[in-house]
Amino acid sequence: MLRRFLLGKLHRAAVTATELSYEGSLGLDEDLLEAAGLLPGEIVQIFNINNGRRFETYLIPMPRGSKAVTLNGAAARLGEVGDRLIVLAYALAEAPPTPQCLELDENNDVVSSTPA
Length: 116
Known about the structure:
The protein is mainly β. It has one helix spanning 30-36; strands spanning 3-14, 17-19, 25-29, 43-48, 54-62, 69-72, 84-93, 100-104, 110-115.
């Protein structure tokens, strides 16, 4: 039987921009995507620590080294620059994978990286 497990997590990612006119998604620095084991187009849940909003969208890559975390389209109405987010990705599997969890500082630099 397949069950849903945590695959990857970015904890306390800081929003760097909002783009209401974009079609929609969460933009993440490619370095952060890779480090957390996430892929462009992957569906993620997002929890805004600042305002309590929770929503789901897909990931798009932003330039490596940019530290970008951008709320686009309708999601741009769910947060502001500087808000801290928790980004969660899941996998369907028979056995739990070892998720990669990254904690970020206010500049979106990784301060710790551990399996959950």
